Amino acid sequence: MTDDNAAAALRPPEDPLSDPFWKSLADGRLTFQKCKHCGNSWLPARGECPKCLQSDWAWENASGDAKLISWIVYHRAFHPAFADRLPYTVAVVELAEGPRMTSNIVGVADPETLKVDQRLRLTIEQDFGMAVPRFIPV
Ligand SMILES: [Zn+2]
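Above: query sequence and zinc ion SMILES. Below: predicted holo structure tokens.
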């Protein structure tokens, strides 16, 4: 598979709701949605607050601080385009502002050293032609 084909297959679908998230990443910022009604924050993008169901929300910038909630180390590639990255880590991380998101932990020589609640820091990497949020242990 060529990089162009992989990029097309792996790119998130165009979506007016989540497009601001991806555009902010391209500008070097990780953003999340915050409810103006109850203060709840969340990812991924959706039209209404998952807590109070109000649709009065705004995008906020994340600080980039996060902690590790859960992870798995892939020893077989989920997609052929990832084969040269093995082993790689897919994780649920919790931003300091509250939202949880799925991401990758990078910059770790031995994934066996990862720990629950480990402090993480955002890094935005270019992958298949788009900006992708990933996390590095602090
Ligand atoms: Zn709410």
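Residues 3-10 form the longest helix (8 residues).
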